[in-house]
Structures are given as structure tokens and as C-alpha cells.
Amino acid sequence: MTSESTCPKCQSENVYHDGSLWNCPDCGHEWTPGASDAEASQERIIRDANGNPLADGDSVTVIKDLKVKGSSLVVKGGTKVKGIRLVDGVDGHDISCKIDGIGAMNLKSEFVKKA
């Protein structure tokens, strides 16, 4: 049996071809022949220092003291940051947030843990 004749999500053999897509009536999954699910989604998963996936709106805790570039301010370890936003930032800064007493800034996900 070919890979197109089974659903890659639920492995059901009850699939049908509709135009350029294959469909599975059992689980509702649609896919393009020859493309894997990882290639189809192409969504970058941002993870914290412990490997937990992060999402927009999560709260995180800073795990070590971070110097604010161009300032004498320091973000202390243990600072809780609420309502983060994931971005494709420069130099690995993939979290955009506001920190009380400091303001808007970008953080690297390797220096935070999910709260």
C-alpha cells in the first residue's frame, strides 16, 4: 500500500483524493501527497530553558540576572514577566515583553522558564 492511501495522522485506510489534496473522513485531516506534516506546518516552536514550548500570552520567569544593553539597569533573576509575545527577533531575541520598572524589551528564550 502506498503512503497516499493511508492517513498520516490516524493511519486509516479510508481516504480519498479530492483535487490536489488527500482527505481522511475519519479524522478530517487533509494533506498534500509527498509532503510531510513537518514540512507542511513549517511552524517554529520556541522553547524555554527547560524545553517547554512557549506561546503568545504566557507568563515566564527570568532565570538569571540580565544586563539591559545601553543602560545601567538589570533584570533580576526571578522577575516574572506576564503576557509575552513571540517574535522573529534579531540575534536570537524571540520574546517581546514589557517588564515593570524597565519597559518594553526583547528577551532570549534560553534565559526564561515558563511560569
UniProtKB/TrEMBL annotation:
Residues 46-115 form the Protein YjdM C-terminal domain. NCBIfam families: phnA (TIGR00686). This is PhnA protein. InterPro entries: YjdM, YjdM_C, YjdM_N. It comes from the Bacteria. Residues 4-32 form the Protein YjdM N-terminal domain. Belongs to the YjdM family. PANTHER family: PROTEIN YJDM, PROTEIN YJDM-RELATED. Pfam families: YjdM (PF03831), Zn_Ribbon_YjdM (PF08274).
